Amino acid sequence: MLSGxxxxxxxxxGIGFLNTxxxxxxxxxxxxxxxxxxxxxxxxxxxxxxxxxxxHSYFWNKHWAFNVRPEEGFWKxxxxxxxxxxxxxxxxxxxxxxxEKVYDPLYYFFMLALLxxxxxxxxxIFRLRDNPVTARSGKELLFFLVVSVVGILINFAIVSVGTFAIVSVGTxxxxxxxxxxxxxxxxxxxxxxxxxxxxxNFIGYKIFVFKK
Length: 212
Known about the structure:
Blueprint: H1 2-34, H2 39-65, H3 74-101, H4 105-125, H5 138-165, H6 182-209
């Protein structure tokens, strides 16, 4: 049982990298298009991008993270984690590079496309099409949405408060803390918000949604 739980957590962590990449790609695409990088507007954009990432994660969690078969060993899950983490982290690094250079929205569109192609490759390599689970029930979907909404609210609150905290009072300008620009500060705050929300999601999914 402990081994299965560890494998679930490892796989969930891998999905976390992919989710973060989806979240960042969608967020930066919309934020760059609207030129919004602070305050409540950022909160709405991050809630949207995080929602997309959560819906994306449902399929990965259902078919991979919480569907560990007895014959699947730890090292197989570890290898799959490395592949998923490498793809997600690589895209995030490219997105942060684009944020530092203040690239156009088209750059983030290509990052999102690159990520989706990479995920399709992983889905095939992991043979998830040959790894079916029980049919989705209404109760499972309901609890998934409830847990996810709480995660979205956590993400929204942290990003909104965090970006307001680094805005100079009455100037609508971000102080050049440590030499980082406004776009990069916003993304760094999102890292903390995403990590906290994902920890909550794992606990909630394990206890309320994908329990067996």
